[in-house]
Design a protein that fits this description.
Elements: H1 2-11, E1 27-35, E2 44-52, E3 55-60, E4 69-72, E5 77-80, E6 82-87, E7 92-93, E8 96-97, H2 104-116, E9 119-124, H3 136-141, E10 149-152, H4 180-188, E11 194-198, H5 210-222, E12 226-230, H6 234-243, E13 247-248, H7 259-267, E14 271-272, H8 276-281, H9 295-298, H10 305-309, H11 312-320, H12 324-343, H13 364-375, H14 380-394, E15 412-415, E16 429-434, E17 437-440
Parallel strand pairs: 1-4, 1-5, 6-9, 9-10, 11-12, 12-13, 13-14
Antiparallel strand pairs: 1-2, 2-3, 5-15, 7-8, 15-16, 16-17
Helix pairs in contact: 1-2, 4-5, 13-14
Length: 446
């Protein structure tokens, strides 16, 4: 299984100028499916999707059209492909997370893995390196390379203390506001989707000073670039919102959000990316979660990780850590805050921080995140909308992607069961389509 990912990545070297989707019919009619379109609307049963030249041209019942291929999807459900607005690609390999792993083959292998799990696009939050900015990123977005499209936050901003994120040594570390403009010019030159800043103290490190993050936000906005913040504390969120932050890239986890903070988030149109799975991964391997022996989970793991996380000594280390109760409490607060933030009408988007470390597995985590959203009190349809339409909005690509609507590119997942009944049915992948062409049978078919 892992070998097939590697071979697909190597194949990309010789197919750079050939669409990853291959030679398949230009027009396709998907018949009789249950369609969940990603807008939050109720599922449409016995509905057809007409696709021409990679785009959806009609979604309705009883379409009659001469096409190159017709596929009967009776009993199947179609949802938009997932989009992750917070991920990491290339630095993970085996049980290590290192800049040494950041190679073309490793990046492409992981983008193919995301695609196998129905994730069509990922935004890498601040840990990229020059390798991708010489055409590779743009080639993934244009569909000239296999796998998920790669969007980037370029080089992230962190504090002068090298403890947080030290394994990515290209992070920018301003010591004063005066350092920021020149650094921002360096980031702006690679045309990032957003700029990433690390603000909180990670429990034991230095926090970014307000005068620094204010300078970063101002410099980014002067260059028409949005800013996403890694944070933990409600008070940091409040101050960052006042400073003009655009995206909160992790949950607020120290305490319950209050009415004033909710009002400010909505007023400033802040996008909230909860990354609930990150918080669960901090403690969940202390016991055996119900999915740890699931093939859908195991297929996403890097070599050696399953042995690592199922070792009794690993579980004991987690349980004996002084951070164990804090992490469990943070997770509980994160779920509570997600429900309050969503109910307040604030845009919530899918993001997981998958790929940053071996325990945050790529592909499976995006499906786990939706399950955790439902555990937080959201409906399956709301979780799907967050993971499709809203995530596309977070990447400012919702004119082309994120919903199954006329005119959109036909990125979709065909499921053998309906996730409205059980959100875990998003894992029952029969096929993944990219721009109107089947590109995968899912992660279990390699």
């Amino acid at each position: 299984m892992k070998k097939s990912y590697f071979l697909l990545a190597l194949l990309a070297f010789v197919t750079v100028n050939v669409p990853a989707t291959g030679q398949q019919p230009a027009s396709v009619l998907l018949k009789n499916a249950t369609v969940i379109d990603g807008t939050g609307a109720a599922p449409k049963e016995n509905t057809d999707i007409l696709i021409s030249n990679g785009r959806i041209t009609s979604v309705q019942k009883g379409i009659k059209s001469r096409v190159d291929k017709e596929i009967d999807l009776t009993g199947k459900t179609v949802i938009p492909a997932l989009i992750s607005a917070h991920a990491h690609v290339g630095t993970l390999k085996g049980t290590t997370s290192s800049a040494d792993n950041y190679t073309r083959a490793n990046i492409l292998r992981q983008l193919v893995k995301y695609q196998d799990y129905g994730v069509s696009s990922v935004l890498v939050m601040g840990t990229d390196r020059p390798l991708i900015f010489n055409g590779m990123r743009d080639s993934t977005v244009a569909g000239l390379l296999p796998g998920a499209r790669l969007f980037s936050a370029g080089y992230g901003f962190n504090v002068p203390d090298h403890s947080p994120g030290s394994w990515m040594n290209l992070l920018l570390r301003p010591a004063s506001p005066e350092d920021v403009p020149a650094m921002m010019d360096k980031v702006a030159a690679v045309k990032p989707t957003v700029v990433k800043i690390w603000v909180d103290d990670h429990g034991n490190a230095q926090k970014m000073k307000p005068e620094i993050y204010k300078a970063i936000i101002n410099a980014a906005h002067q260059r028409n670039i949005r800013v996403a913040a890694h944070l933990f504390y409600a008070e940091d969120a409040r101050q960052l919102i006042e400073a003009g932050i655009d995206i909160i890239a992790h949950s607020i986890r120290d305490k319950e959000v209050d009415a004033d903070l909710l009002r400010k988030m909505k007023q400033k149109n802040v996008i909230y990316i909860p990354t609930l799975s990150l918080d669960e991964y901090q403690f969940v391997y202390a016991d055996n979660p119900d999915w740890i022996h699931d093939d859908f989970f195991k297929a996403s793991l890097e070599r050696g990780v399953l042995e690592m996380i199922t070792d009794k000594s690993y579980a004991e280390k987690i349980k004996n850590s002084p951070d164990y109760p804090r992490n469990m409490a943070a997770f509980k607060t994160a779920k509570l805050n997600l429900k309050k933030i969503y109910d307040a009408g604030i845009t919530v988007a899918l993001g997981t921080d998958s790929g940053a470390f071996p325990i945050r597995t790529q592909g499976f985590t995006e499906h786990l995140e939706m399950e955790l959203m439902v555990q937080s009190g959201l409906t399956p349809l709301q979780a799907i909308t967050i993971s499709t339409q809203n995530a596309a909005k977070a990447l400012k690509m919702d004119q082309e992607f994120g919903t199954l609507k006329k005119g959109k590119k036909a990125d979709l997942i065909i499921l053998t069961d309906n996730p409205e009944k059980d959100i875990k049915n998003t894992r029952k992948i029969e096929a993944v389509w990219k721009e109107g062409k089947e590109v995968s049978k899912g992660p279990l078919q390699h």
